[in-house]
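Attaching the record inline, Q. Sequence:
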Amino acid sequence: MLFNSYIFIFLFLPVTLIGYFTLGRFHLVKAARIWLLITSLFFYGYWNPPYLLLMVISIVFNHQTGNAIASVQLKSQRATLLLWIGIIVNLASICYYKYTNFFLSSVNTLFESNLPLNEIFLPLAISFYTFTQIAYLVDAYRGETQENKYDLITYSLFVVFFPQLIAGPILRHDELIPQLGKLKSYLFSHKNFAYGVTLFSLGLSKKVLIADNVSPWVGTAFSNINDLTFLEAWVGALSYTFQLYFDFSGYSDMAIGLGLMFNIKLPINFDSPYKATSISDFWRRWHITLSNFLRDYLYIPLGGSRRGELRRYTNLITTMLLGGLWHGAGWTFVLWGGLHGIYLSINHWWRKLKTPFPGWFAWAITFVAVIFSWVLFRAATLQDGLTMIATMTGFNGITLPGEPSGKLAILSNFGIQLQRWQNLKYLPLLGGSRLLAILSLIGLIFWVKLLPNTQEVMAKMKPTWWWAIAVGIMTSVCLLSLNRVSEFLYFQF
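Structure, as predicted:
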């Protein structure tokens, strides 16, 4: 079930809210918790019921393993053994469903063999709920759950709470479970509901009005990579840069807004990442909960920066390589992660020189570096990604819009070719104009760089009639635009 669907907005969500707060009104806290758990399981099972069993087995296994770890002596040999058993079982599950065919196809390519590939359907959200539970086992091993052995219902709701289940934010147990133990979480709050609806509407607007409208531009460019000109390649790369941002940040806003409707505060997942002035700054702003997970459960356990600069760079690259592989079973994702590991290493090395760039230049090179990395992230194959990057950097020639025999024909002396607008067939159209489409992308650059983000907008929100009218109009436009239901991009990860 998708957030941006009529069945979710007009049926599932109202029924879930009414049942939750009706039970809460009579202080039937446990019943309300069970109701929210049942509806969350239904939300997941609606997509593919057979895989609901896989998730339930995973939840029961990790709950029991976490309690077993918390029951033995802190960081004892037995606790270590239980932790490794839990991690291996979780990784075995995700590796089978997500990486089996990737491994087999890589072996076939490398050794020119013909190993048969299995028909494996990737369970929705397996990356998110598996990593959430691995983090829980590690926290249990560290002694952070010993005083709070959670019952199965509470633990299950922590994992499957439907606003964050499909694509995050990735939660830690201490970010959600304590809220489930408070009576006020089950009592209707006009303020939280108003803020939640506003956040949901803002996120829905990002998804429906921007990301979904840019999506066809992305598809056209990345389906014709070998035929793109210099400008067409840049327009395609920028289109995906904004599609991914407005799609995923829109989902995160909607998830946080839904949480607030239930009086649950979920962590912020985006903080204007395209305003970043360094790659380190970018990763403090982009998919914040994943960045924190990689830092706390991978980078720091590997040694972090405690064992010298060379080891630090090795740990950074290793962490990002695995982070790339987490996103998808393909060499494009691995290279994307490795590229960001190199970016981060260069970033830390440059900081040691204490020669900062001017702010505008630091922002520009960071933004361009991120755009190039997104090309690899989106490309169907490694060769496609490298071909598009070669085109963007001018290695396949530079072609710009213009009259070949006009005043700018002199540019041909510098290796720059001119083509009429109508001949640049892979440039997108907006209102029948290719120029208007390009100007809209330039406008989005100024948007993400200069305008306030969702959190800053919400900080200024006041529950007045003017806000209600504005949100109502925005939501109505979105609902009227739901002529086709499109999945969120991060669902595939």
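The chain has two domains: 36-187, 192-277+357-492. Residues 77-111 form the longest helix (35 residues).

More tomorrow.
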